[in-house]
Design goal:
globular, alpha/beta, 25 strands, 7-stranded parallel beta sheet, 12 helices
């Protein structure tokens, strides 16, 4: 699969008042894409997979003899994380007794750019706008949040389906800005963690005192607020669900295979009911069997502990039915819920009307009956790239902008202008996935920790679009929150 932050856009609330209609200026809309970058020769971390469960007690010494260090062991799945092993010594590591495979030292790297869509200044003080967790449709920016109307979320909200603090959704992403006005109090920092040590000095330098799980990239906060939000500025699928920030991608939108693996294991061991992974990678299975094996074991571990895992289908317009050697988006695993994206490709104003349909399949999205389970709103781009419609959610107040030319960071407008509240527009299967995770969180309240039953409920209640039954673009259909919760027939 692939990590899809895709095309991003900004809107500023100078002070909340009326959410006025605006046209959406066109900006460059590169096709969302993820590069898998090699870290060969750097001694970067790798996953070592053993033939069974457990890691031999002698393994640390053998790693040290090869110039590396044993960073973590996961006996339950027979995987160890090592670092400092040069390319020259990888083959020797693979020959250690009991070792089945060693993963490549690779990273997931976002390569799309941010772009500004519009800026809005309005007249009423933010403090005067009532907090609305019991009525998400009154959120200031709700008029432009077409995604919730597409999935019939307002009917579920009206029936009282707002989520429960006892349900935890782990966001495996770039972190979460837990101080954003719609996320304050929703992020369980005690059960959050960062697996991106390179972010720590940036957090300390730019935002002293902040927890290292804070979001320096913007992607994770956008995703998190889709799952759960107080609905002052932006609504979420739920308003009370507890979030866990599990940072596996850093300030430049990249992270290691090992970080993602460790994030899955951590979330499972620390009380997550649902794991949201708006990330992934496309790589050839025969090129990296170690990564395939480690990820499969981690996902099996999560499933065996009754965790529902939701992943994004990816944004490369790949036919997953006919790419048999491609490990795509973790959608290869039959136990996950793999999510494709939908949305209109143009609009008259930022608040609509939207054309041609709220449910048009994403022009950039991966597809395939064998992979996609359901679809959800992710935003869309016209086939000729001339217009786009964004999904609007929270913008991290700790978002840094990276300048590749100077190799330096600076504060984004969301981080620099703290007198105002900003929202972020984005397009991608990354945006579709948390809509499904939010629905899964609601269903945990009804069915308990039962991934199979939750997945079946999501699929059976979806609106059957495209070809009858299982469609390559929609899977079993586009999700319907109200029907899944029994509000609509």
């Amino acid at each position: 699969m692939q990590l899809a932050r895709s095309v991003l856009a900004l809107t500023a609330i100078a002070a909340l008042g009326a959410c006025a209609d605006q046209t959406v200026p066109l900006a460059p809309h590169p096709r969302p894409s993820l590069a898998v970058a090699s870290a060969r020769g750097t001694g970067a971390s790798r996953m070592v997979v053993f033939g069974g469960t457990g890691v031999p007690a002698s393994f640390a010494a053998k790693v040290a003899a090869l110039g590396g260090s044993l960073d973590a062991t996961y006996d339950a799945v027979g995987v160890a994380v090592v670092s400092g092993i040069s390319d020259e010594n990888v083959s020797a590591l693979a020959r250690v007794k009991g070792v089945q495979s060693v993963s490549d030292a690779a990273t997931f790297t976002l390569d799309e750019k941010l772009s500004t869509a519009n800026t809005e200044a309005v007249a009423t003080a933010l403090d005067a706008h009532a907090d609305s967790p019991t009525a998400p449709a009154t959120a200031f920016f709700f008029p432009r949040q077409w995604s919730y109307r597409a999935i019939s979320a307002p009917a579920a909200w009206a029936a009282g389906d707002l989520g429960s603090p006892s349900v935890h959704v782990a966001i495996l992403d770039t972190g979460i800005d837990y101080t954003y006005i719609d996320l304050q109090g929703l992020v369980d920092l005690a059960h959050s963690a960062s697996f991106v040590p390179s972010d720590a000095p940036l957090v300390d330098a730019f935002f002293p005192g902040r927890n290292h799980v804070t979001d320096l990239d913007g992607h994770g906060t956008h995703v998190a607020s889709t799952v759960s939000s107080h609905a002052l500025a932006v609504a979420g699928v739920t308003a009370r669900t507890t979030l866990m920030a599990v940072k596996v991608l850093g300030a430049t939108g990249s992270g290691s295979y090992t970080g993602v693996f460790q994030g899955i294991m951590y979330a499972t061991d620390n009380g997550a009911d649902v794991i949201n992974m708006s990330l992934g990678s496309n790589f050839l299975k025969h090129d990296n069997p170690g990564a395939v094996s480690a990820f499969n074991r981690a996902l099996n571990y999560a499933h065996s502990h009754s965790v529902t895992v939701v992943v994004a289908a990816g944004n490369d317009a790949i036919d997953l039915d006919h790419d048999g050697n491609l490990y795509a988006a973790m959608c290869d695993d039959p136990k996950v819920i793999c999510v494709a994206a939908t949305g209109p490709t143009s609009s008259t104003t930022v608040n609509g009307p939207f054309f041609p349909s709220l449910d048009a399949p994403a022009t950039y999205g991966n597809f395939g009956r064998s992979a996609v389970n359901v679809a959800a709103p992710g935003g869309n781009i016209a086939p000729d790239g001339s217009t786009a419609v964004f999904v609007w959610q929270a913008c991290s107040t700790t978002w840094l902008v990276y300048d590749e030319t100077t190799d330096t960071f600076s504060k984004s407008v969301c981080a620099a202008d703290l007198a105002h509240v900003y929202t972020l527009g984005a397009i991608g299967t990354s945006m579709a996935t948390p809509h499904v995770s939010g629905l899964a969180a609601l269903l945990v309240e009804r069915y308990g920790r039962n991934p199979g039953q939750i997945r079946a409920a999501i699929q059976q209640s979806a609106d059957d679009l495209g070809q009858s039954g299982t469609d390559p673009f929609y899977g079993k259909g586009r999700i319907n929150v109200a029907r899944a919760m029994g509000v609509l027939n």
